[in-house]
Specification:
Blueprint: E1 2-4, H1 7-17, E2 26-33, E3 46-50, E4 61-64, H2 67-72, E5 79-81, H3 83-91, H4 93-102, E6 105-109, H5 113-119, H6 121-124, E7 132-134, H7 142-149, E8 151-155, E9 163-170, H8 175-190, E10 200-207, E11 213-215
Parallel strand pairs: 1-11, 4-5, 4-6, 6-7
Antiparallel strand pairs: 2-9, 2-10, 3-8, 10-11
Helix pairs in contact: 1-8, 3-5
Length: about 220
């Protein structure tokens, strides 16, 4: 594994080392931790971070809604799921799993959240994909859709997996934008760690099908 001295160098090196593919690769970041036990509830990381420069790669959004909100969402989201469809998905576990795997982000009309929990909760919750609730009378859904598309989840997995993985953009984005996204994630994580920088062993960058590059200095 290559090692460099700064976040920017790590991103640049990861991109330069990766072979060109027939698709645009995602730039992934892993944060490795030390001296922290994630099996203790107080230490667990569970936060969402909006990437300031966006993620660029299209992330598929499904909206669970009816009537007026469903009409407003046409052309903004990738799929609209009605309450009737929601009930049918609750009866078909395989279809529910396919849905959960197909879409990156879910939004739901707030009054429908109890139904979401009843019919899809067991499928969406373990994947960290429970919907963002929105009021049925929200005048403009577009900012919400844009925000959730650019939001990444950070979840610690437990004592024996002291690492989190998160996409910070795509290889064709400007380096300064990728660096800004990376620092937004790192700063959000630091704010949740009891010893801040002392709890981070290193940060690793890689493209989807590229080699990893380690950075120990996150300043």
């Amino acid at each position: 594994m290559e090692e460099v001295q700064s976040i920017r160098e790590g991103i640049e090196k990861a991109i330069s080392l990766a072979k060109k593919r027939k698709f645009t690769q995602t730039v992934d970041m892993a944060i490795n931790f030390r001296n922290i036990d994630f099996s203790k509830p107080d230490n667990r990381l569970k936060l969402d971070v909006v990437l300031p420069k966006g993620i660029k790669k299209h992330r598929k959004v499904a909206l669970i809604a009816k009537d007026e909100l469903a009409s407003k969402a046409k052309g903004l989201v990738d799929r609209i799921i009605t309450p009737e469809e929601l009930e049918e998905l609750g009866k078909d576990r395989k279809a529910a799993k396919r849905l959960a795997n197909e879409f990156d982000v879910f939004i739901a009309e707030a009054p429908l959240m109890p139904l979401v929990g009843k019919y899809l909760g067991q499928v969406l919750a373990p994947r960290g994909k429970m919907p963002t609730p929105v009021p049925p009378t929200i005048p403009n859904l577009e900012p919400i859709v844009r925000r959730v598309r650019n939001t990444v989840q950070i979840r610690s997995k437990g004592k024996y997996l002291p690492v989190v993985h998160v996409p910070i953009g795509t290889e064709d984005m400007p380096i300064e934008d990728l660096e800004e996204n990376a620092r937004a994630v790192i700063n959000a994580v630091l704010d949740k760690l009891p010893q801040r920088e002392a709890n981070i062993r290193d940060v690793v960058f890689k493209l989807t099908m590229g080699p990893a590059v380690r950075v120990k200095n996150i300043a």
